[in-house]
Amino acid sequence: MAEVDASVSRDSGLGSVSRLLQSREVGAILAVSVLLILGTLVRADVFLSTDNMVGIVRNTAVTAIIGYGMTLLMVSGEFDLSVGSLMAVCGALVATMYGTGYPILFVVLLVLLFAALYGLFQGLMITKLGLPSLIVTIGTLTLLRGANLVILQGQTATISSDNYPDLLFYIGGVAELASGPALIQQFPIQIVWTILFLVLGYYVLNRTAFGYRSMFTGGSQESASRTGIKTDHIKIINFMLVALLAAFAGIGQLAFTQAVSPSTGQGTELIVIASVVIGGTNLFGGEGSMPGTFLGALVFALTQNILVLAGLGVRLFQVFTGIFIISAVLIEVLSRDVRAEHLTNGYIEPLTDLVSDAESFFEYVRSDVQGIDEPLMFATVGTIILTLVTLVVMTVVDVMVGWGFSFAIVSPGVAALGTLPLVMFMMMAGLILLSTVFLHAGVKTIGTRRDFDTTLQGVIYSFSPAVLLFIPVLLSGWDFIAPLVIGVAALVFLPTLYLLYRSTQVLHEFSGRNAALSVAMMVILWALVVAFTLTQISTIN
């Protein structure tokens, strides 16, 4: 198993910051930390209360319990999109069978057996027939969703408090700890199962041969097979485990809510997979973290809680889900070999060279066959800085001064965490892409031997002053007079136009006159776009 250890080992020479950045759980740790601070700012008296904290942890139960099984499955190189539907079907079976008089122990054991056989069936379909897990689990997701409707006959099934069995209480009930003033009034039993399965999952993944074989299978199935590991068996067992945990989570949710409906479990599979990915499990297999999965589930529980405390309900929850998934994938890609010098080499050094001697910098870009990866990283880091500065200044001023802020769909508070990154990334992407198209049209008209990628490189680096756009954005959001906002924006874009002129002159080997004409054509095209947009807006108003 030396090969497995090598595949999951880390560079011991890294500093503490780099080790944190390279840890599987870095994304979840950062997200939980930010959300804890945000919740305290939004409504500290309620958010920090013991009952609320217990409720948040309880809300991780379904996602985390299923997520532990999903972690093992994804570590071995597969995933299951049907867990939400399976959870609902198992809860429906327990509610309806117990409601018709079957003993609860018999019902629970029968449902768990059904889940295990279901996982076995899926595993055999995928490993022995060679079908992709995406297609198979989409099919079974739809099948189980229809089965849930049939079982419930389109109605919500409930278990009354008068007929509430002890077994369900021990799976997902709520223990009454005190009748009067106390630190904790009620304690959901699901929290115990969440922690217990976390410990068991960590032990299986990190301390057993099965866990190492799962990682080896996901890391390189062909190599694992050559060493004698029965990779098909590993995957089948993991499909069975995630099915059993989904069934148990469904029974626990039934025990907690005492009801199951046709809509139960919808979207659960996406939140589970997102939690697992946020927690540090590699999308392509080979690496995973059980504590990270719990933290990922905690991210979603905290988000829902904060949205409710902020008076936003769950309207933005799907927006945050998408942002978390994209962020987790980005962290997964960047954290494979993240070091502090990457920020320096990828953003600070190019920016310094650009400011000190733009012409020499673009000469270097022209002579260096670097593609567009480095420029895109440069643009991404700049946009992240723009977003963070805008968010921090907007929030601090809103708290301390109370100025009303409204920019596009952005307003202060929790909603800004979801909407501001979208607005900033769309704004910067639109500015860069349209400017590249317009400028390339100009250089093609005049005559250039360079391709579109060359123009894109020049535009990206030329837009480096756009990191200062937070100033006009904030002024506009605070309703400062339009001439001031436009003037500040012009101060940002004047150096951008100069850099565009220099980049066009150097990268496309143009004379000063031709470079100026190309940039002028771009400005004219932008003016036409802005004029058309303002005309359309005026017709609405």
TrEMBL record:
Transmembrane region(s): 26-44, 56-74, 104-121, 133-152, 187-205, 236-256, 268-285, 292-310, 316-334, 376-403, 423-443, 455-475, 481-501, 513-534
Single annotated GO MF: transmembrane transporter activity
Keywords (A to Z) from UniProt: Cell membrane, Membrane, Transmembrane, Transmembrane helix
GO cellular component: plasma membrane
Membrane topology, record value: Multi-pass membrane protein
Every Yip1 domain range: 360-531
Keyword check for Acyltransferase: no
Pfam families referenced in this protein's UniProt entry, alphabetically: BPD_transp_2 (PF02653), Yip1 (PF04893)
Subcellular location: Cell membrane
UniProt cross-references to PANTHER family, sorted A to Z: ABC TRANSPORTER PERMEASE PROTEIN YPHD-RELATED-RELATED (PTHR32196)
Protein name (Swiss-Prot/TrEMBL): Yip1 domain-containing protein
Protein's organism: Haloarcula mannanilytica
